[in-house]
Automatic annotation (TrEMBL):
Pfam families per the UniProt record, alphabetical: ADH_N, ADH_zinc_N_2
GO biological process, one term: nervous system development
Species in which this protein is naturally found: Electrophorus electricus
Keyword Plastid: no
Organism lineage string: Eukaryota, Metazoa, Chordata, Craniata, Vertebrata
Entry protein name: NAD(P)H oxidoreductase RTN4IP1, mitochondrial
One cellular-component annotation, GO: mitochondrial outer membrane
Keyword terms of this UniProt record: Membrane, Mitochondrion, Mitochondrion outer membrane, NADP, Neurogenesis, Nucleotide-binding, Oxidoreductase, Transit peptide, Ubiquinone biosynthesis
Length: 401
């Protein structure tokens, strides 16, 4: 698009003015510059204008071009975008109350609503433009990132992110391969490191159980934990055993040959359980932990966003607070820790993961890739469940991919 390209080149020139803190006057000027030109700048994107089923996905050539509002932001040209279950859930309105509150007030003010909303949480691409405070990246750098759910997503030609959410992409991966990882990697990192207290130096003698080993989070977490020397047991369907063993799982339990808890109970107890399944797993999983040893159960399936959707922000957060406190206390009396785990964006975590990837210790598990015009088919695929790794959409065509 000619307008977009003109805007990009103008913006790139203006943002090369230097680094360091942006004065208020300069910032105001910069914002005014961006806002004034926005009306004439558009890009291709898949958007939704209301929540619903797959039919709400709409392709447009006129989506608003992203704007650098803060000096620490970068605009990334998207080469590949990965899909996650949260995209399916958000398409249906999941988390709308909380995410709307978290969205940048500048954006909400501009449009008065979250629509048109762009989904897509993983991005691999190339830096197009940097804010004045950005020194770690420069235009042309190949990067990967997980786009937080409260920001416009990656199913578009361009996406704007804070520089601290972005990381240099592993050199050993193509854009499509790189787009398999950031969201599940950032989630696994947040859950295992920040919530679970694990790291590369304390895993050697630890026994970890992953409930749900064959999907996006599971296939990444297995590899991260194995690279840190942990012993990893996973549950999955029988037809996923080959996949999870191939990426390092030590013990594999087929959850379809019920009762799975009985089989797991016959194994030595665990130091940490990562639960990506939820529901009734909570009723038996905590009894598999080593008691009074600081062992933790961390679940990714929490009622946090559902509560705020149903009860509103204040009451929903109150309900979540009471639920987590009650459960944590109940399990503490039995000598184990109960925790909720959440995705957290982190460029520095992706930097560390990049090293593991380039060292050949973690590889992408790409199940299927779709061209940009086939985004609704990609959503159907993810919505169908039974993931074996990741689903990725190619946005920009790259030679050799
Ligand atoms: N809290 C957060 O911030 C956060 C962040 C990321 C993800 N999540 C949640 O974490 C969950 C996993 O995410 P994901 O990206 O890994 O999903 P995914 O890619 O769709 O994978 C789910 C996997 O679980 C398997 N599975 C289904 N039922 C199972 C069971 N009872 N036991 C063992 N495996 C089972 C599925 O295969 P089969 O059905 O063929 O067995 C599939 O391979 C999702 O619910 C997601 O919403 C939460």
């Amino acid at each position: 698009d000619v307008n977009a390209m003109q805007w990009i080149s103008l913006a790139v020139v203006s943002s090369r003015g230097g680094h360091g803190a942006l004065s208020t006057a300069m910032h105001a000027h910069y914002r005014a510059f961006s806002t004034a030109t926005r009306r004439h700048t558009v890009m291709h994107a898949w958007v939704i204008d209301k929540y619903g089923d797959n039919s709400v996905l709409r392709f447009t050539k006129n989506a608003s071009f992203p704007i650098i509002d803060y000096p620490n932001e970068v605009i990334v040209k998207v080469h590949a975008a990965g899909l996650n279950p949260i995209d399916i859930n958000m398409r249906g309105g999941y988390g709308a109350a909380t995410l709307k509150m978290k969205r940048d007030p500048l954006n909400i003010k501009r449009t008065d609503s979250e629509f048109p909303l762009i989904l897509g949480r993983d991005v691999s691409g190339v830096i197009m433009e940097c804010g004045l405070d950005v020194s770690y990246f420069k235009p042309g750098d190949e990067v990967w990132a997980a786009v937080p759910p409260w920001k416009q997503g990656s199913l578009a030609e361009f996406v704007v992110l804070s520089a601290n959410e972005v990381s240099h992409k592993p050199k050993s991966l193509s854009h499509v391969e790189a787009a398999c990882m950031p969201y599940v990697a950032s989630t696994a990192w947040s859950v295992l490191v920040n919530t679970g207290g694990l790291n590369k130096d304390n895993c050697a003698k630890k026994r970890i159980l992953i409930l749900g080993g064959s999907g996006g989070v599971g296939t990444f977490a297995i590899q991260l934990l194995k690279s840190w020397g942990a012993h990893v047991t996973v549950t999955c369907s029988q037809n996923a055993e080959h996949l999870v063993r191939g990426i390092g799982a030590d013990d594999v339990v087929d959850y379809t040959a019920r009762p799975v808890e009985k089989t797991l109970k016959s194994l030595e107890n665990f130091d940490l359980i990562l639960d990506s399944i939820g529901g009734e797993t909570e009723s038996w999983a905590l009894s598999l932990l080593k008691p009074w040893c600081g062992a933790k159960y961390v679940t990714l399936v929490t009622p946090f966003l559902r509560n705020t959707d149903q009860l509103g922000l204040a009451d929903g957060m109150m309900r979540s607070g009471v639920t987590i406190a009650t459960k944590a206390l109940k399990h503490l009396t039995k000598g184990v820790h109960y925790r909720w785990g959440f995705f957290a964006p982190s460029g520095s975590a992706l930097d560390e993961i990049c090293e593991l990837v380039d060292a050949g210790k973690i590889r992408p598990v790409l199940q299927e890739q779709f061209a940009f015009p086939r985004v609704p088919r990609a959503f159907q695929k993810v919505e169908g469940g039974h993931a074996r790794g990741k689903t990725v959409v190619t946005v920009a065509r790259v030679q050799g991919e």
